[in-house]
């Protein structure tokens, strides 16, 4: 069996969409898009449609019957006017989202998904589904695997790099079966190992990240704690760039 050639991209703009052509990509936006979407699907949402603009979300919502759809997302961390939900995973309970379609737009995460549009498969990663995603990737053993960090407002964000490192370790890199394809993968792995000695140290690393600092200012400490929880769900969200639809 061939080894997985594992690449980590610290920001979407450091790479080109063609880099992912016919490969497998994992989009990472720990605080909070990929955590929130995973939560919504685990709690029974039919699907999540990722769009780039608020106007696009409102137009798409009109195509659904009344009561069948929820608008969710944020701009700069805060709920969008006219939307039902923000980008807090804690808001997407089964009572709220079960059997609903969700139309979702965020500052960073949904843009990172669109950036990976040339990949043959695009998964979403969060600590909440770390093991399920690692198992899926080990079963598929793609020739090339790209872990794409969404970042925060166009800048590298520590929490996404931590997840990339955790996934590198979970897949067994470096080994005969998984080879770091770039030095960024080694950097992410080192970062993860430096901050994962205790749950509290890991949580503090999330709080002190760019995304975490923004959320603390807005009073979303509970969202950071939820994002830090590992293996809450055994689902793997899959994004279809042609339709924007994400399903479990």
Considering the chains and any ligands shown, give keywords for the structure:
single chain, 20% strand, six-stranded mixed β-sheet, 248 residues, putative 2-phosphosulfolactate phosphatase
Helicity level: 25-40%
Rg, rounded, reads: 17 Å
Name the CATH class: Alpha Beta
- Main beta-sheet strand count, sense and barrel state: 6 strands, mixed
Taken together, the total number of domains comes to 1
Number of distinct helices: 10
Second CATH tier, the architecture = Alpha-Beta Complex
- What is the total tally of β strands? 11
Strand order of the largest sheet: 5-4-6-3-11-10
Q: What does this protein structure show overall?
A:
- The protein has helices at residues 33-42, 54-61, 94-97, 109-115, 130-140, 158-171, 183-195, 199-207, 210-217, 221-227; strands spanning 4-9, 24-28, 47-50, 69-75, 78-79, 101-105, 121-125, 144-149, 178-180, 238-240, 245-247.
- By secondary structure, it is of the alpha/beta class.
- The protein has one domain (4-247): putative 2-phosphosulfolactate phosphatase (Alpha-Beta Complex).
- The strands form 2 sheets. The chain has a 6-stranded mixed beta sheet with strand order 5-4-6-3-11-10, sandwiched between helices.
- α6 (158-171) packs across α7.
- The mean pLDDT is 96.
């Amino acid at each position: 069996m061939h080894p997985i050639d594992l690449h980590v991209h610290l920001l979407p703009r450091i790479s080109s969409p063609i880099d992912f052509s016919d490969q497998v990509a994992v989009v990472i936006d720990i605080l909070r898009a990929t955590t929130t979407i995973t939560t919504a699907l685990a709690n029974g949402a039919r699907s999540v449609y990722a769009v780039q603009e608020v106007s696009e979300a409102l137009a798409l919502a009109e195509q659904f019957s009344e009561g069948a759809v929820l608008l969710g997302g944020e701009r700069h961390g805060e709920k969008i006017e006219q939307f039902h939900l923000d980008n807090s995973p804690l808001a997407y309970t089964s009572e709220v989202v079960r059997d609903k379609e969700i139309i979702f737009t965020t500052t960073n995460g949904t843009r990172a998904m669109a950036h990976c549009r040339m990949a043959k498969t695009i998964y979403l990663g969060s600590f909440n589904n770390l093991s399920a995603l690692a198992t899926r990737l080990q079963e598929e053993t793609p020739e090339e695997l790209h872990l794409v960090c969404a970042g925060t407002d166009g800048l590298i964000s520590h929490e996404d790099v931590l997840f990339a490192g955790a996934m590198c370790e979970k897949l067994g890199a470096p080994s005969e079966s998984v080879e770091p394809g770039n030095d960024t993968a080694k950097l992410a792995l080192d970062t993860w190992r430096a901050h994962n000695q205790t749950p509290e140290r890991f949580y503090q690393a999330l709080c002190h990240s760019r995304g975490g600092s923004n959320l603390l200012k807005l009073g979303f400490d509970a969202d950071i704690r939820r994002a830090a929880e590992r293996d809450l769900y055994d689902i793997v969200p899959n994004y279809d760039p042609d339709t924007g639809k994400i399903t479990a």
